[in-house]
Amino acid sequence: MVCTSAISGAKEKYRLWLQARYNNAIRCLCNVVGTFVTVPVLQELAMRTLMKFLAEESKHPFKKEGSNFFFPIHIIALLVPQLLSKSVVSSELIGRFREYMEFDDVRYHVLQHIQHHISKQSKEKLNQMEMTTLCNNTVNLLHTVTMPTDEESINNFLGMSPDLDEGARITILKEHRKVFTNAWLAFLRFPLPTSVYKQILVNMHESVMPHMTTPLLLTDFLTASYDIGGAISLLALNGIFILINQYNLEYPEFYSKLYAMFEPSIFHVKYKARFFHLADLFLSSTHLPSYVVAAFAKRLSRISLTAPPHALMMLIPFVCNLLMRHPNCKVLVHRPHGPRELSDDPYKMDEPNPAQCNALESSLWEIQTLKSHYDPGVSRCAANIEKPFPKMEWDLDEYLELTIPEMVAKETKKKMKTMPLEFEPAKGLLGGGQDMFDAQFWEVLIQFEPAKCLLSGGGRV
To answer: Are 28 and 45 in contact (CB under 8 A)?
Structure first.
């Protein structure tokens, strides 16, 4: 008769052997996900198999613990480093992984391991190519995250659903925001490439800041981005303004740096419409000092001299709106004894400080010159600055995305009753109107000998 203890020992040994084979299978599947980059179908199949293992192991764990809730973290710990490869961009595979990030338990643990992996990689010496690849994969994976807005919405689990009575962290919104914040902060400490900077900053105010435990933790990153210059500074504007406006961030140099961004090249950047929309929002406060508003109005007027026509259609109403909000600045328009020559203008274009550029002592003579612009739309728009302003501000939205072809199409579609021509009707051969070759002579000549008038060389019809 076989001993009962021997049977139990054999079962335990067999169970451990099966568990070891299962763990080997997990590692092999993760290896397929990370190495078979030339066969994306095989990568996806391996990833889906891993997630099925995860769901089943969560419901049927190998060992029962004190709590009924169990999540196989070891699968996520092996899978995340494969998705965040530093050798191959895995954007397509990460895109397919998005459906699993909709599960609250998967998202929670993936964010935890993103932080762990990024912190580990920051201690290694990566070359530029590896750094760029790692950052692209990380930002793509972070952008798959859709955060819950309240604890009632945390109810979608791939594995076993935890009991609320157990007080599991995974059911608490604050814990989800904590791992989300830690993952982003760990990533933002990296020396990010320019392309990744832009990907992050474009949607940071919508997809990142509202879900962080304390958005002010982004202050260092946003201010450093604002100091870089170019398109990155432009994209960092919105995040900094939100921190100032909603979270009481003290940033006294904000308007000085915004003022310095108004350069002639701003009309030719990709994010021009976004920049002017935000700038109009930033300058909408009626509590700004008059010298600050005057400095912006004058700088915009000066760079208008070299701006393209479609930009002027937006720029002139922009300046007019500034004058409407701050009547004290209308002195820039109503200054009859202002400078007549550029050399007499007290305004200092090269002065970076709005308080010291002497804008209030100058005038908007640049807008006056635009009344003679070759484009009829621009000249009509420039004439508005001398007319009584309307009660409502000009809506800039219709001009932000305006292009030159659209301006041309708009002008050509206009129906005109009379066509302006640059000539005067002839009153006579000598122009006096009283000589023998006056208009009546030509009418008689045409009446009696039309063929001779119409044909050259004396031919006849």
So the answer is: no
